[in-house]
Predict the 3D structure of the following.
Amino acid sequence: DSGVTQTPKHLITATGQRVTLRCSPRSGDLSVYWYQQSLDQGLQFLIQYYNGEERAKGNILERFSAQQFPDLHSELNLSSLELGDSALYFCASSVASGTYQETQYFGPGTRLLVL
Amino acid sequence: DQQVKQNSPSLSVQEGRISILNCDYTNSMFDYFLWYKKYPAEGPTFLISISSIKDKNEDGRFTVFLNKSAKHLSLHIVPSQPGDSAVYFCAAAAPRAAGNKLTFGGGTRVLVKP
């Protein structure tokens, strides 16, 4: 158990809908990262938040957004869902902002299926 | 543009023998490398890491070697155990250049036969 929690574990929805994925980092970790794992793309970085502020951005679609709240939990919002958004979404956390070498610890993931 | 590559999609090894997993990278800004193990329906589990100032790091049965000039790293698991059967991902980071995002290889599926 990494100490990172994600809810829900599974999500089935329809095209055009909007969903929210939730992540709670390990106790004491200030950074939260979101990754997407799809069949053809492998694990891809989406976005990083550090202590409530956006720190780094990857190839995140404009239909996707995220935020980190004062209690440090984070939410990833996916809207206008398309079939291709079906994937595993992982959250990871680390102690600080990433300006030095530090390890990220991953949650169990949310499996999203868009029908 | 795959900056981190694991060229072997799968590996089969006998229990008790050595498993060697390879990873190549192209971005010279990467200065921190990690290996993760992943079981089906679970998140990646951190195994071992290495900083670019080192060429070897050991933790129990796991050893990671880094060859910066060749932009190559490898993970040695010895002795291999059936519980090591999983997908292994190599990941790289360039913390000072781009936050701390990890760039992952495509993974190598390891099967340890009893």
Remarks:
- The mean pLDDT of chain B is 94.
- The radius of gyration of chain B is 14 Å.
- The interface with chain A takes residues 31-32, 34, 36, 41-46, 49, 51, 89, 91, 93, 95-96, 98-107 of chain B (CB under 8 Å).
- The CA atoms of residues 30 and 94 of chain B lie 4 Å apart.
